[in-house]
Amino acid sequence: MHFAWISRLLSGLGHEVIVAHARNVASDRGKPAQRRSAGCTDSARLARIDPQLLCPVKHRSARAQADLTVIRARAGLVRARTALVNTARGLAKSYGERLRGCNVRNMNPEKAEGLSPELQAALERCWWGSSLERADS
Prior knowledge:
- The protein has helices spanning 4-12, 33-49, 62-94, 117-128.
- It is an all-alpha fold.
């Protein structure tokens, strides 16, 4: 959630923070500005009377959010690596050739042996010349 850091900051300053679940609270979109500000007032009144009416959301801890960020970053790297291998396979196929034993975990310059010189040069510059590290290590 994008507002977790704001919630932690305000709580750290001693404020009581209630984050309302947006789908469970009446929407103010499309209403005139005067009515939207009245909606804020209504939300503040609800928070004072019965905070459960706002369907409060509890954010992840900073540690849990950091752990989730690592997991999402790794998943993005794995997707990028897979896309690179699939691109190399597609390029070889467009030449009527095939990368032998092409697996995302063991992709290396030896896989290009036996390919046409043009394709080898293209793959060398684009794939093996990059400084991307393996995401599974």
